[in-house]
From TrEMBL:
Main location: cytoplasm
Record-stated family: Belongs to the tRNA(Ile)-lysidine synthase family.
Function summary: Ligates lysine onto the cytidine present at position 34 of the AUA codon-specific tRNA(Ile) that contains the anticodon CAU, in an ATP-dependent manner. Cytidine is converted to lysidine, thus changing the amino acid specificity of the tRNA from methionine to isoleucine.
Residues binding ATP: S34, G35, G36, S37, D38, S39
Keyword annotations: ATP-binding, Cytoplasm, Ligase, Nucleotide-binding, tRNA processing
Name of the molecule in the record: tRNA(Ile)-lysidine synthase
A GO term from the CC aspect: cytoplasm
UniProt-annotated location(s): Cytoplasm
Organism: Dictyoglomus thermophilum
Domain Lysidine-tRNA(Ile) synthetase C-terminal intervals: 377-450
HAMAP family in UniProt: tRNA_Ile_lys_synt (MF_01161)
InterPro entries associated with the record: Lysidine-tRNA-synth_C, Rossmann-like_a/b/a_fold, TilS/TtcA_N, tRNA_Ile_lys_synt, tRNA_Ile_lys_synt_N
Amino acid sequence: MKDKFIENLEKKVLNFINTESLINERDSILICISGGSDSFALAEVLSTLSPHYNSNIHLLYVDHHVRQNTEEEKSLIKEYADRKNIPFTILNIYPDNLTEKTLREERYKIIEEFAQKNGFTRIALGHTLDDNIETILMNFLRGYGLEGLIGIPPKRDKIIRPILVLTKKETAEYCNKKEIKYKEDFTNYLPITLRNRVRYQLIPFLRDIIEQFPQSLMNQKIILNWDQELIKNISKEYSNKYIKSNMDGFEVNYNDWNNIPDAIKVRILKNIFNNMGEIITIEGLIYLMNKLSKIRKTGNIATMNTIKIYKHENTVYFIKKTLEENYEYTLPIPGSLKLPSGYEIITEIIEDNKESINFNDLWHVYFDYDKIEVDKLKVRNWREGDKIKPFGLKGKSKKLQDLFIDKKIPKWKRLEIPIIFWENEILWVVGIARSNIAPITENTKRILHIMVKKEV
């Protein structure tokens, strides 16, 4: 007869999986296992429940090479995997100069790469109810706002946390009743990290003074999650309406920005930074919100990591930081060249096929190949005093600075625009103006085609 505790625990996890839609029919599940009671409980319960979903499972251990006893952990897992006939893989990370944060990021990265390469549709992690409570309290103490008070999500993309409803006491008892050997990391008991101090000092204190703790905290989490979903949806509506993406980042009309509620602004800023490959801290958000509330004229607002926030006329731009140094490269013909500013220049030679030319495309330009010393063609960024002889000015020159002003090109963008030149003559200011040098005529035999792409 099946033990009642085991039966109830597995039923609780099954209900949680179904309620949160964590596993689909025929999912292939990669179970991340460390050797502790939580991850062994995760492996055992998913091994038991996998027939419900016709799913297959695979165990994965990541060795960081920073802790003692990893050999003992690997031995325990291999013994378990062999006994249960579950495939088992070990991946290694060699820390070198990695911090705890970057080590964790590297761990997630190699796990996701392994899952992608081997066709796993789910990655199961062994976070528990205790982990969630600790995370919520830590986020509160660190001032992480509403999103932080929601805690650990049951699901994010491929990642699932099926035992988020179990306590550590339950996972340990489950392993003991199932006669599964496990090895707890002794550093989990040392009061050297914020998490351990929350676990062994703050939580016992809260249990002492609040009779309903931690259930009261989890009830609040449910309510806050509803609030967060509402604000998230409203934020999306505001973003779709007011925030525009461009080739360099994002932009917003300043009058529109001032009409957006602050709670929504904060979420929009976080999304902008995330989409541009950066993470903005709480302190950074407060600082930037304050700066954006006081803009009076055109100019730089702030530079944060690789993102520059700039106001030009009545528009605020969020862009990748402008190049600080000048650059200059010889153009390969034919061939391609990637520039530090994110542009790619592609060149080709066309043998007398004028019919295929579109002179109205700002990202393509055409020259009479035989009227230019192509081996001297170069590309660089703008320099003070640059001039071009564009079509329509009858051979007269125009300063690029005046051209930029006419075209309303913001100052921050000017250094990023590639300039194609030959000796002392500028042939093309990419996307803006072409010179009158070497035009295509009825006598042209070979055409030099230059086109430019910009990484978005």
